[in-house]
Amino acid sequence: MQKTFNVTTSSIYPPGVYFVSEGLYVSAVCEKKTDCGILLYDKKHKEGIKIPFPEEGRKGKVYSMLLKGYYDRNFSYLFYQGEELFQDPYAQALLYERRYGETKEQPARCKVPSHEYEWENDRAPVIPFEDSIFYILHVRGFTKHRSSGVRAKGTYAGVIEKIPYLKELGITAVLLMPSYEFDEVFRPEKMHGQEQPAPFLKEEPEEKGLTAKVNYWGYQEGLYFLPKYTYAASKDAVSEFKDMVKALHQNGIEVMMQFYFPPHISPVKILEILKHWVLNYHVDGFQLMGGGLPLRMICEEPLFAEIKLISDQSQSFPAEKYGGWDAVPPEYRNYGVLNDAFLYDIRKLLKGDADMTGRLISLCKENAADRGIVNAIARQDGFRLADLVSYDHKHNEANGEFNQDGSDYNYSWNCGIEGRTKKKSILALRTKQMKNAMAFVMLSQGTPLIYSGDEFANSQEGNNNPYCQDNPVCWIKWNLTKQGEELFTYTKELIRFRKKNPILHGRMPLRSMDYLSYGYPDISFHGRDAWRPETGSNSRSLGILYCDRYGNPAGDETADLLYIGINMYWEPYTFGLPQAPKEKEWVRLLATDEQITEENREESSCNVLVPPRTIVIYGTRNVQTEKKNGRNRRS
């Protein structure tokens, strides 16, 4: 138990509360020239003792002091300014004293981490953008549902329990929705870009006492230097988060985090925050959200040379440095852009809008030497994949805003019936459309991004803005339907197929040229006749040919060709396959319509009949012949 200590002046920086050899160092920013200091709790001061900053310890708005001789590592603290109590924005641990969604009169007390973490030679996978497959998940919602099958539901430990599933799926990086510490109990002034909605209470709270409206997503300012402690199964959120990172790294999976920074957060502090997570939590990348972000400064930070940085701002500064699209790229591209054009235009193509074939040609090969291009059909904001093919309109009434929140423009199609149905023909069409969507994401250049649960048709019941829904609307439902199992199996096959064929995830942009004289361009486009794509406004079909040797120029000279026949029209379409190389033949590899058979291909003319709203993938293989009944038989 701490008995005595002396208050003396100390250096102004760094901000925060730390133990040093002489005792406890304290530094904070106080906006008002009034009584301010630290409110300290320990065994001797259970109700807290106020220790004011000495005036001689002030420089501008920064105050500091040293509690000389104080070494009680079990203490907790808050800062005070007049009658106001506030948390240390540089705190690195909290006292675990409330449940998720529970309100307290006083903010959670801050702590100083009490021990060093054993990383056990942890090493980051360092997977390039072109070889990555991102997977967005909400730590709580990922395993909170009773069907998740994990012991530690809704926690970092729950994510660890799901690692075998993540490996089976084949993703390479998890992208965590805000997992830094924030107050999830709804505070309108902290919700960026949203006004106070009508009052909302959870009708059937899972846990007693949880009746407040919550900011389930977490896109708000918070305590940026520590993990969210109500996402931990234990009372040590710091160690549990690090356990999760270490376990994912041991299984070859990177850990990335979303951060929202309002405009008043200084560039210097943003850089300091990100450095903290890289150095202390071994995080592999960030999606940065907010306005006025110092992207150039962040990307050029030497510490982040192999850290992925993603934003929705299409910056051109890397091209200035590396010389344009056909220049030799940097050894590791550390900057990537979310491709909103892909998300919206592919949705339009999926539901059969006109004049989209030309856009498909551009989107499927879009890549850049200087930065990553991240493609998604669904993200955290907007319809989930299952809802994209089940609803024409948003259904956000449960948010308490009279269905006025959320985007009105989703470019969705319900396939004939709004919402749930048992009609087999509609369900079959929806399944095929979801498989088509996954094919577009996985077979395009750039980095695929999947929202957790989309791979098995998890639904949010038509809610495209469930920011306050801490319930099964947002939680992942793991009790798979037959539809979900079919989509999951197909998604796994697509991911394996993408990884197997380097031409589908190249580092450099494709040129539509045979610039290495392999006999075929790296990528080419086709229609009813080979080499003649139909790109008119009424076209909804396109054939894409890849020469896989361009994905591995130093490899096998007999590398296969890949042909993707895309028919988003509501009638069958006949594609003309290009002539296969000598001693090769075309064979079907994957199809989004399970009813399609090899008989759809006319061997003699190399034509392929693709059913309505279907994608078929063909590849070449060696022809083997044997004498039987006086003729050659292909096998």
Task: Describe this protein's structure.
The longest helix is centred in the C-terminal third of the chain and has 20 residues, at 424-443. The protein is 19% helix and 22% strand. The model is unreliable at 189-210, 318-326 and 625-635 (pLDDT under 50). The chain has twelve helices and 31 strands. The chain is elongated, with a radius of gyration of 28 Å. The strands form eight sheets. The protein has an eight-stranded parallel beta barrel. Strands 1, 2, 3, 6 and 7 form a five-stranded antiparallel β-sheet that branches. Helix 8 crosses helix 9 and helix 11 packs parallel to helix 12. The chain is an alpha/beta fold.
Summarize, please:
With 635 residues, the protein is of the alpha/beta class.
The SS-based structural class is alpha/beta
- Compute the separation of the termini in Å: 82 Å
The helix fraction, in percent, is 10-25%
Overall pLDDT:
89
